[in-house]
What we know:
The complex is a heterotrimer. Chain A is mainly α. Chain A has helices spanning 2-22, 24-32, 37-40, 46-51, 56-64, 67-98, 104-116, 119-132, 139-144, 150-160, 165-173, 178-189, 191-206, 210-215, 224-231, 239-269. In chain A, α5 packs across α16. Chain B is of the alpha/beta class. Chain B has two domains: 23-140 and 307-380, D-Maltodextrin-Binding Protein, domain 2 (3-Layer(aba) Sandwich); 143-303 and 392-435, Periplasmic binding protein-like II (D-Maltodextrin-Binding Protein, domain 2, 3-Layer(aba) Sandwich), CATH 3.40.190. Chain B is globular and about 70 Å long. Mean pLDDT of chain B is 86; it is low at 1-20. Chain C is mostly helical. Chain C has one domain (46-283): Orthogonal Bundle (MetI-like fold). Chain C has helices spanning 10-36, 54-61, 63-93, 101-109, 116-126, 132-137, 147-175, 179-187, 192-203, 205-221, 224-229, 241-251, 255-283; strands at residues 39-41, 47-50. In chain C, β1 (39-41) and β2 form a beta hairpin. Chain C is globular and about 70 Å long. Chain C starts with 9 loop residues before the first helix and ends with a helix. Classes of the chains: A mainly alpha, B alpha/beta, C mainly alpha. Chains B and C meet through α3, α12, α19 and α20 of B and α12 of C.
Amino acid sequence: MRRKDWLGVLGFIAKLILGLLFISPLLVGLVFSFVPSRLLNNLPDLETVLGNLTLENYKWIMGYIPIFRFLGNSFVVCAVIIVVQVILSSFAAYAFSFFRFRGSKILFQIILIAMMIPAEVTVIANYLTIQSMNLVNTYAGLCAISLLSGTSIFMMRQSYMQIPRELKEASLVDGCSDMRFLFRIAMPLTVPAIASLAIFLFISAYNMYFWPMLVAQNTDKQTIQIGMAMLVGTENVEYGHVLAGAMLSIVIPVAAFIIGQDYLIKGMTSGAVKG
Amino acid sequence: MLAAVMVAALLLSGCGQTTTSGGPTEINMWSVWTGTGGESIQKMADEFNASQDEYKVVVTYSGSYDETLAKFQSSAKGSRPDMVMVSTESAALFFDNPDYYIPIDKYVEADSYDMSGIYTNLRASYTDSDGKWQCMPLGNTVVGFFYNNEVLEKAGVSAADLNSYEEIEEACQKLADAGVRYPFILVSNSIYYTFPMTAEGIDYVDNDNGKSGSPTRCLLDEEPAASATTKYFQFIKNLAAKDQLAPYDLAAADTRQMFVNGESAIMMATISGMSAIGELSNWELDFGFHVAPTISKGVENLGQCTGGGVLFLGNNGDENREKGSWEFMKFMMEPENTSAFAMATGYLPINQQGADTAEYKAFVEEKFPTAKDAMEAQMATGADVYNAILPMFNDFHQIVMDYMAKVINEPSYTAEQATADMAKDINECIELYNMSK
Amino acid sequence: MRKKRKQKPLPYLLLLPMVILFGLFTFYPFIRSIYLTFFITDPLGNPSSFVGFSNFERVFTDEGFVKSLVSTIKFAAMVGIGTFSVAIVLALLCMHPRRGSKIYQTMYALPIAVASVPVSALASYILSKYGILNQLLGIDIGWFSTEQTALIACAAVTIWSSVGTSFIFLLVGFRNVPEDLLECSRLDGAGPIRRVLNVVLPLASPQVFFVIFLNIVNSFKAFAIIKLLTQKGPNDSTNILVYAIYSNAFLRGRFETACVYSLVLCALIFLVTRVQLLCEKRMVYYQ
């Protein structure tokens, strides 16, 4: 028994070290974000770093970009995208997994094909479409092209396919309509999948750069990643600012992720779906 | 429920418009500047807004020059920004699309504003053949190279002799013999080809290098452009063959590091990189800046054409906003503002008045005495020295850089072949552009 | 007596939003881009002059084209296989939840929360010629400026930042394997590797194949890191198809050429995923 314990402890330490190594770039970024830019050009040694810790990079950023406005805009966009994607992909997953209908194969293929088309091809045409709908520089315009994705449908479908058919049949016997089944039974059962989808969507929506860059015309609607890009100097990169900005911008998704992923992995594996 | 979400989204879209009733007219400027340059622009906007009630300038970061251009081109009239920053080279694209902008000459005339303080080489690039100003110069960079005085002296090279690529090649040999690892740093940019060509007065496209009309073909298959181009490629090849050329695709930060620690002695750059080098070396490095050389030895250097950026008045059919934009432009052209912007960015001031301010003079003395030489070269430039006006500049730029890379990466690829192939590609890109109109 | 089933409208209604959204924002632009490959386009992407197949000719005879194709396949293979391998190893390591396993679990997945702009900023700082990594290793390779290393360096950064997603999906799949089955096989004398191959992987096969599919598709489209760090790369070594699309459309103003490249890319992705789906049909089963 003791040998097993020791192995367990060793294993834990090894995996922990691996983890630390894995996130070491982030740790480096974090530490160096507290060092003034001018010392970062030539790689500073430990003494210099410890002797010069300062908040000046963060202070400069707060003064230079309207970071809270940007974060707020990012949140609105994320919230809308998450809600709409969860609903629409649940609809699609439900349709594909619980119904047999003509054309279901083709429609499924459509999703696969849609996933293969790179965004660079569609972006200009989409911008022109959004413009013709007068949605440039609006929240709707910012969200419009991200309201559904193949990955979301896939994720939800995986989850829906694990719901036992008997459950639906039983509910039909009880007089439950299809939609009622969806909202009352299926969706609650797939909450773990919804939670994990929400986290992924949050991260990917939060990290969008190119589309918001095109659509948002002023600081009113610009999102956090655009703010990040503003920190990279046109001529002379001030690494202190860039690293501090990077740290500021990742605080929220990292926190959301840390809190969320524990819940979602536990949720997805507790057998809630199988019960 | 889906309907509810859609309706909510549409309602949110309504929140996008800002209606000003009775307040100052809002004027939009799309800016590409970040860092200290961005701060300087914002400061000017804030001061301008505080100084009067009629107009309010709102500066928005619109991405890089390329991203800004992409956004602008897909904007319909009426939703364009009132002022937009465009790179010098892409200004040609605007000139070829008069619908995009209002020439500032309209307001220069109306106000009888005196633009004469602005340096001649800027006038050469930004006025049309009737001398009418199309756009306001914003950045005024000088292209050339930095040189490390200490290292040059040790190798017995005099900076004053480095007037052409030919002479630079000779100097690099001396530097290499004195132990400098990579005497020459070349950065991937077409300006290190076009500026020397222009300095020698060699046109590389037809129609007066694009001034009298959109180019229809390039002149690289004729003299004098052909042999000058071949000489240029040969220069690069020679240095690469002798391993005197620094690794070609290094990041800008890394090249500066190399320059500062003496591994390199001559670095092609624009003058705006000066503050970066200064910072990196804690202003302890003894370095200077030399304007763009000619290609061949002994050819008279006709002068420096400009680079950097300009500010165009977007065409939205709204004269009130145009007037407001022009007011802000005038404000930006005030001496204390042109010098402040110059000091923040490392560019040169666009007008003599800015250069004459006490602050700027002190700045030059303290940080960079050699800026004086660059400015004098600017002023000495004749009004007919300008880079080719290429609406298809972006494509051209990529092509030149491709060939610069190719002659370095493929030792067996000859300079003559490069010139011939590049001529073909440039002709193709001109043709494609003309077909797309 | 067979009851004739009336075709319910419900599934169609449920899928209607999907059809509209994909139709408008994915397929319409895509069809349009195919249409545009036969024209020369103006800066706005509107067709200008009809040129038949000459765009295709121009692209296919460009010597950079084959190079781009090869780099794309190399990059996609590195990123796809790399991400999958790292993810599966990490997921297997974390398969059994232990005390404190949450900590390193979170660390493995954390990089996906970091956007590509900060990731590239960090990468360019750490991997610079005079940067930390080189100092630690005592060398001075320009990772992003040397032809032989540029593509690999970009792949490594891309793998690092995208492992988390695959890791989580696989972890969920592995954790869903019933403990009792694993116990049984251990009692039967199967060692850890055997257990993984014969029990865990087959039972988690839906997840595994989903992750493979996702990796393939994403690794062909992975682009942000290259755009921010190396662009075309030393001697065009990182000029993968996706970058060629971007540079033609946005840097050179040649939209129709970008459309040709994107057709090639889509065909490539389609081909590879066909193969993968064929394999899946034979190897996956749902419970």
